[in-house]
UniProtKB/TrEMBL annotation:
Keywords: Membrane, Repeat, Transmembrane, Transmembrane helix, Transport. The gene is ga30723. Gene3D superfamilies: Glycerol uptake facilitator protein. It is found in: Membrane. The keyword Transmembrane applies. It holds the Pfam family MIP. Its main location: membrane. This is Uncharacterized protein. It comes from the Eukaryota. SUPFAM superfamilies: Aquaporin-like (SSF81338).
Length: 307
């Protein structure tokens, strides 16, 4: 055991609580299945070297094998909670970083979706509904894997509203988040329009069904998105490793369901940005009302049924 201990220390795993409005430190959750785990960033601090350890010999006695395995297992990299945003970072600067992350994330998401739609229109349906839905789902997947540790990766005013109502986002952050998301969408819409010069400006979300049908489609699809997000991002018992794939798959699924009927917005910023860029505001109220209500209902439904 003396040789086993040399050059390595047993890893201590801690699961600090998620950031609250009283603290400006973003902590790292090491074990995604820990009792109090939340979606937060992580970083490995490799203080050990596993290369020097060898596997146990099957011919060894069971006690020797157990001792050997205990020693070998200690060689894994030590995992420590490391704050990515230091305590001396004031609240205003922290909020600024989060707002910038929301702006950039929303910009990337909307630019990707609109570019795919325009390519489909300009090249005789080469992308197809499946291609557009896949593009939206993939964009959401990679974005969830990127700035989620900074801002939570909302990219959607409906999500921010729902998270604020249920205590997962400080109320003081709601307006800055929503402003950044709408500005990111608007910037992406104008840049997309300037690059591609679309003929029919089909990037705006305009219902192709009746008002009631459009309202309930947007309500239900947004409900589904927030039910999934709330389950995976806020429940400590959920499989955090799957959140990016699950959210991306949900967006893709909903785009296939509602894309031909309403454009499958599920996001007020997705509707407002292209509407400003194209000057088309047809039945925009449907998207402004149905999506926040669906988001609130989706989060509320999971809060009611969770264990």
């Amino acid at each position: 055991m003396e040789g086993c201990k040399s050059g390595m220390e047993a890893a201590t795993v801690a699961a600090p609580p998620m950031q609250t409005s009283e603290s400006n430190e973003i902590s790292i959750i090491i074990s995604p299945r820990a009792a109090n785990s939340k979606i937060m960033p992580f970083e490995l601090a490799n203080d050990g070297n596993i290369g020097s350890q060898s596997h146990a010999n099957p011919a060894e006695p069971s006690d020797a094998r157990a001792t050997h395995w205990h020693c070998w297992n200690k060689g894994f990299p030590e995992i420590k909670p490391i704050p990515l945003i230091k305590k001396n970072l004031n609240q205003h600067k922290l909020l600024l970083l989060q707002v910038i992350a929301e702006f950039l994330g929303t910009f990337i998401l909307i630019f990707t979706v609109l570019s795919t739609i325009i390519m489909d229109e300009q090249h005789d349906g080469v992308e197809s509904l499946l291609g557009i839905a896949t593009s939206a789902g993939l964009a959401m997947t990679v974005l969830v894997l990127s700035p989620i540790h900074i801002s939570g990766c909302h990219l959607n005013p409906a999500i921010s509203i729902s998270m604020a109502i249920f205590g997962h986002l400080p109320l003081a952050h709601l307006l800055p988040y929503m402003t950044a998301q709408i500005l990111g969408s608007t910037a992406a819409s104008f840049i997309t329009k300037g690059i591609y010069h679309p003929v029919n400006l089909g990037i705006a979300t305009i219902p192709k069904v009746g008002t009631v049908e459009a309202f309930f489609l947007e309500f239900i699809t947004t409900f589904v998105v927030l039910f999934i997000i709330t389950a995976l991002a806020t429940d400590p018992h959920a499989a955090k490793e799957l959140i990016a794939v699950a959210v991306g798959a949900t967006i893709m699924m909903n785009a296939l369901v509602a894309g031909p009927s309403t454009g499958a917005s599920m996001n007020p910023a997705r509707t407002i940005g292209p509407a400003i860029a194209t000057g088309k505001y047809t039945q925009i109220w449907v998207y402004m009302v149905a999506t926040p209500l669906g988001a609130i209902a989706g989060t509320g439904a999971y809060v009611v049924v969770k264990l």
